[in-house]
Amino acid sequence: MRVAFIKVFKIAEFFKEIYFPTVHHLGHGAKSPACIALESYFASQDTNDRQEGLLLFPDTGIYYEFIPEGQWHDLTPEAIPLKAVEIGKPYAMVITTNGGLWRYKIGDTVMFTSTDPYRLCITGRTKQYINTFGEEVMVDNTDRAIELTSRALRAMVSDYTVAPVHLTLNGRSGHHWLIEFDQAPEDIKAFADLLDTNLQLLNSDYEAKRFQSMALNRLQLTVLPKGTFRKWIQKKGKSGSQAKVPRLSNERTYLEEVLAIISHPLTQQKTV
Fold first, then answer.
1. 212-229, pLDDT tens digit by residue?
2. What pTM does this model have?
3. Are residues 211 and 164 in the same domain?
């Protein structure tokens, strides 16, 4: 079994190294047209319309189950079978395979766009979200907001991470974005304003919390020098395509570690 998993891992690494750079540059924030995980090969894009989602493979030796959003962090969640999923609702994926995995939580969150045939979009990770104030922001929301904002203002984002700003921190609540640009926009403030607006359009819960800034203030944005995330990853002792910057966190641990790379205090950096 160990040898089999090592082989799968090496194959996954090969495909990611060869194909991901090409897919990534198809456009601002373009996503991979397949769902390839270490555990298996689940789905693939079979149309030119990304909004349709990926076509799920239901007959490849995998039994799928899905945990509704409200139970992702319960000790004994009630998973539902594939035939019971509903369009537009977020789920955490659970798989049982003929290779030996039994009710394994892969960590990915998905949302179905069709049930005949089964099509889904990968919306993020169960451990990467922000819901400190009831805003329920997922990676799919922030990725899409970045894509729309970058396209409108002719910017290119290489990496980013987001964490909450708690009420006890400078008396403000909201979200703090750290962004590293390949091509920075001419007006950083305009980028932050539009990014916040786009996130509201994509997430009604965030929009409700942002209404008249009653619960959340407009997002804060800190522009990082190029290479900052790479230095943080190296400091964590990680390397290769599996070394990724966490997009979202309900805690400020990652964000504070990255800020330490560029020498705190935050006021010395460009924040809008």
1. 888 899 999 999 999 999
2. 0.66
3. yes
